[in-house]
Design brief:
Blueprint (H helix, E strand, L loop, with lengths): L10 E7 L1 E2 L10 E6 L2 E5 L5 H7 L7 E5 L5 H4 L2 H10 L6 E5 L3 H12 L7 E5 L6 E5 L2 E7 L7 E7 L8 H6 L6 H7 L4 E3 L2 E3 L13 E5 L6 H7 L4 E5 L7 H7 L4 H10 L4 E5 L1 E2 L3 H15 L3 E2 L6 E4 L6
Parallel strand pairs: 2-16, 4-5, 5-6, 6-7, 13-14, 14-15, 15-17
Antiparallel strand pairs: 1-3, 1-18, 3-4, 8-9, 9-10, 10-13, 11-12
This protein binds zinc ion (2 copies).
């Protein structure tokens, strides 16, 4: 078993398929899982994803939301198989699918042709071309904006709330604050009176810990919306279909190079860059060169393999 579920306040990205367009034995079609302590969010679901979920040891019933970037086959051909397998496994948990207009029609067509029925609660949310695509998904406030691809394609920014600072029991004891309700009030930001003296929360509670921001941006050219969604992201997952010397090809096909990904990460002041959507045409040697050239621009860069897990820490918590 490769993947493990996570502990309280832990967030991990489990890569399932890291390739592009056509699968290889090394890189499957695009899909990754964001593991948080309440469940799993899937980003895209290329063909073969349900097997990759099993190989990674993830519980499919814990997937509560699937974010779809766009309707190209390499990102959605795994959806019908996953949905029907979940039905056959007697799934009861609700599942929400968020994606561009047409995702619901895609499902309806396949369901009517293949003649299957889904009994568990299944919801679709189609995004609009307007800029106000914002919704709560698990512990994240999710914002979606259109990117620059050959078809309507959305990038996602998942932002987690800050966490309350650490309670300093020694300082509390020194100030004579008894265990119980007054300590709980202080933890919740409410001042208390002890022997006629006002105690403020900041005297015993550390500063709030910022939340993680994950930006999932594929398939796209570098563009203004991509930069906005990527701004100060803790982890930026970005289209790196081609190596740096194929910028023209990337431009023509509405994709990005590893160099453009690194430049965008630097501009956005991201914490970490994860190169994603790697074309099988590159091969292992070129992939190694892509990673090297990206690191010269943005040192904290990884090019995850299928089944690799990357833990994402709250800023300043490592
Ligand atoms: Zn693609
Ligand atoms: Zn595409």
């Amino acid at each position: 078993m490769i993947g493990l579920f996570v502990m309280t306040d832990q967030v991990k990205i489990q890569f399932l398929g890291t390739g592009a367009a056509v699968p290889s034995l090394r890189r499957g079609l695009p899909s990754l899982a964001i593991l948080h302590d309440g469940g799993i969010i899937l980003c895209d679901i290329g063909e073969g994803t349900q097997l990759n979920i099993l190989r990674a040891g993830l519980p499919p019933s814990k997937i509560h939301t699937i974010l779809i970037s766009h309707l190209h086959g390499d990102h959605i051909f795994g959806l019908p198989g996953f949905l029907t397998s979940q039905q056959m496994m007697d799934r009861v948990n609700p599942l929400t699918i968020i994606g561009p207009p047409g995702i619901r029609q895609y499902y309806d067509h396949i369901r009517s042709i293949a003649g299957f029925d889904i009994q568990y609660p299944l919801y679709f949310k189609e995004l609009t071309q307007e800029e106000n695509n914002s919704m709560l998904v698990g512990p994240f406030q999710v914002t979606a904006k259109p990117l620059e691809h050959r078809t309507v394609c959305y990038g996602y920014r998942l932002s987690e709330s800050p966490k309350a600072g650490k309670f300093n029991s020694q300082a509390a004891a020194a100030l004579g604050i008894p265990e119980g309700s007054q300590r709980r009030d202080l933890q919740q930001g409410i001042p208390v009176q002890i022997n006629g003296k006002l105690i403020k929360p900041e005297q015993v509670v550390g500063p709030p810990v910022p939340g993680r921001i994950i930006a999932y941006l594929t398939d796209t050219r570098p563009c203004v919306n991509a930069l906005e969604l990527a701004r100060t992201a803790t982890a930026l997952i970005f289209d790196s279909t081609f190596s740096g010397d194929h910028a023209e090809r990337a431009q023509q096909t509405f994709h990005s190079t590893s160099v453009q990904a690194a430049e965008l990460a630097r501009q956005a002041v991201a914490g970490q860059l994860l190169l994603w959507h790697i074309s099988i045409r590159n091969g292992e040697e070129i992939e190694a060169a892509m990673l090297r050239e990206a690191r010269t621009i943005f040192p904290n860069t990884l090019m995850p393999a299928d089944y690799e897990t990357v833990e994402i820490f709250r800023p300043g918590q490592r």
